[in-house]
Amino acid sequence: MDIPEQSRSISQEDLLQLLGVARRWLDSAAGQMLLDSERTIIRSELEHCFGQHLVQYGLLPELLDEQRSVLRNHWRLDLLVSQGGLPVDETHWPFAPHSLDVVLLHHGLDFCLSPRSLLREASQAVRAGGHLLIFGFNPWSCWGINHFVGRDWFSEAGFVRPSRLVDWLDLLGFEVEKRVDGCYRPPLDSSAWLERLRLLDAWGERHRFPGGGFYFLRARRQSLGAIPRRQRGREFPALALPPLVAGSRRAHKRDKP
């Protein structure tokens, strides 16, 4: 069965510009609130992941820099050329199928040409029993209002619905083991107001309300009848990185949220 396609157009150049604007926004008060909450979650959730090989991709490739000791081998993939990252095309990763233990998509589906294609590329690299960890912006939240009314970079980010993503993962052979929501406070520019509204986060987390500004999914690739064996040694081919075509105004299709 194929993942149903609904799409809109965005050029590669526009995508790279959008990603740059969003990364600069991470230095704002709301951006730091987002990263603090997400790092707290990923520190806890990585304890449920095992193996040797981890790849991270998305909005902030450095999200796991403090967690490099969790798995032996750790790669950062990036659409933009950055220090310490491997520049790749979102649909051509330099890893053999079923060769990775953990893939982390940090809002990768929110900043791509085609969430469907990126998810398929990331999923096929995960071994049986391995994990796909996904952070995404929640359209059904106060953050989603900015997306629908066309405010700043929020209007162009993907905002894939978590329910749709769960369906995609099921089609790709993954079972969602856990969902966590975070950032119930709106993405305000004022640090003072964010501090005043801190109780919203405490309330949302206590009641596990599915309306946080972002969601986190931990999904495991299913295997039938056997416990996955621990991989010994590297299974990757030589890293022949495909060129990233930047600056093209040709329209590419991506999925609507």
Structural notes for this entry:
There is one protein chain. It contains 7 helices and 9 strands, in the order βααββββαβααβααββ. The chain has helices spanning 12-25, 29-45, 115-124, 142-149, 162-171, 191-196, 198-207, and strands spanning 7-11, 53-58, 73-78, 86-87, 100-106, 126-137, 174-182, 214-221, 251-255. A 7-stranded mixed sheet has the order 4-3-2-5-6-8-7, sandwiched between helices. A two-stranded antiparallel sheet has the order 1-9. The longest helix is centred in the first third of the chain and has 17 residues, at 29-45. It is globular. Residues 1-7 and 224-253 have low confidence and may be disordered.
The domain tally reads: 1
From the 3D coordinates, which CATH architecture would you assign?
Answer: 3-Layer(aba) Sandwich
Q: Give the termini separation.
A: 20 Å
Q: What would you give as the CATH superfamily?
A: Vaccinia Virus protein VP39
CATH topology, what is it called?
A: Rossmann fold
The mean pLDDT is: 82
Write down the overall geometry. globular
Q: Give the low-pLDDT segments.
A: 1-7, 224-253
Describe what is shown at a glance.
This protein has seven helices and nine strands. The protein is an alpha/beta fold and 257 residues long.
How are the secondary structure elements laid out?
Elements: E1 7-11, H1 12-25, H2 29-45, E2 53-58, E3 73-78, E4 86-87, E5 100-106, H3 115-124, E6 126-137, H4 142-149, H5 162-171, E7 174-182, H6 191-196, H7 198-207, E8 214-221, E9 251-255
Parallel strand pairs: 2-3, 2-5, 3-4, 5-6
Antiparallel strand pairs: 1-9, 6-8, 7-8
